[in-house]
Design a protein that fits this description.
The protein is of the alpha/beta class. The chain has a single domain (14-274), classed as 3-Layer(aba) Sandwich (Rossmann fold). Helices cover 37% and strands 21% of the residues. The protein has 10 helices and 9 strands. It has helices at residues 3-17, 68-71, 97-111, 123-134, 153-160, 169-178, 183-195, 207-210, 230-239, 261-273, and strands at residues 19-21, 27-35, 38-45, 49-54, 75-80, 116-121, 139-145, 216-222, 243-248. It has a 9-stranded mixed beta sheet with strand order 1-2-3-5-4-6-7-8-9, with helices on both faces. A hairpin with a 5-residue loop joins strand 1 and strand 2 (27-35). Helix 3 packs across helix 4 (123-134). The longest helix has 15 residues, at 3-17. The protein is globular, with a radius of gyration of 19 Å.
Length: 279
């Protein structure tokens, strides 16, 4: 066999290795890349304009499984496990949303994606705020769900009560489904989540900083969110130039699942499609 033929065969073998089958029978393109001093796992679903989906802190890319059918027909979904989450590593054992944004820029660079649309929930939305201010041209439109430009007193009190040792068995079960690098990984994530109560320089956006965001932005906030009060969402809406605000009644943190999934998908899809521009 020629050298070229051997190389082509090796490339095909590598391609097939990185193709998995989703539960609904669709092909999943998955890969782990070395970037920013870590190993980041990500999946790609569908074809079309890139849509970056970012899970919340303590979540994983697998949290988006029930949304694939809704969006993969029109977009190429880029779904990473953020630093230290899911199958991704975090050798530094430190976590900031600012660093998560740097990781995402490096991922987009490696994938050859100049700009994209994005949806981020909670910590994923926080990372998007850093991404959209650090590299405005990389994000065309974004949906921020329960994201916080800074942590207020109620958020810090909530974090202060966060358990690090001996959480309930159900919490362990859910975390073990999401995170594949062992219980030490889970303990580290819980400790980092509690440590956010003492963080003042990571999420500390001022209105002038938010005003530099060029992406069309939909801000989604539950009216009973203990971490992101409605007043903070209104502040963000006032500061971000091309923004819309959706206050979800009777909803807490991250109102995109359960009874809220249908309304969220419908609203986010119309926004990302650009339907609201004509209104």
């Amino acid at each position: 066999m020629s050298e070229a033929g051997a190389g082509a065969r090796a490339n095909e073998k590598h391609r097939k290795k990185n193709l998995a089958m989703a539960p609904d029978g669709r092909r999943v393109r998955s890969r782990t890349l070395s970037l920013q001093g870590m190993r980041m796992y990500h999946e790609r679903h569908g074809h079309g304009q890139p849509l970056l989906l970012l899970h919340g802190f303590n979540g994983a890319g697998s949290d988006w499984a029930s949304f694939l059918e809704s969006w993969s027909a029109d977009y190429e979904l880029i779904i990473p496990d953020l630093r230290g989450h899911g199958r991704s590593t975090n050798p530094s054992r430190q976590y900031t949303h600012r660093q998560a944004a740097k990781d995402l820029i490096a991922l987009l660079d490696r994938l050859g994606i100049a700009s994209c649309k994005a949806v981020g929930v909670s910590g994923g939305g926080n990372a998007l705020l850093h991404l959209a201010t650090r590299a405005p041209g990389r994000v065309e439109a974004m949906v921020l769900v329960s994201a916080a430009s800074y942590y207020g007193a109620s958020a810090r009190e909530f974090m202060r009560q966060y358990l690090v040792e001996d959480p309930a068995d159900e919490a362990w079960r859910i975390m073990r489904q999401r995170h594949r690098r062992g219980d030490d990984q889970i303990r580290e994530l819980w400790a980092q989540a509690r440590g956010f109560k003492d963080s003042y320089d990571d999420m500390s956006f001022t209105p002038p900083q938010l005003a530099t965001i060029t992406a069309e932005t939909l801000i989604v906030c539950g009216d009973r969110d203990p971490l992101v009060p409605v007043a903070l969402a209104v502040e963000m809406h006032d500061a971000i130039p091309r923004s819309y605000l959706w206050i979800v009644p009777n909803a807490g943190h991250g109102p995109i699942s359960g009874d809220m999934k249908g309304p969220f998908v419908e609203t986010a899809t119309a926004f990302l499609r650009g339907d609201w521009r004509s209104r």
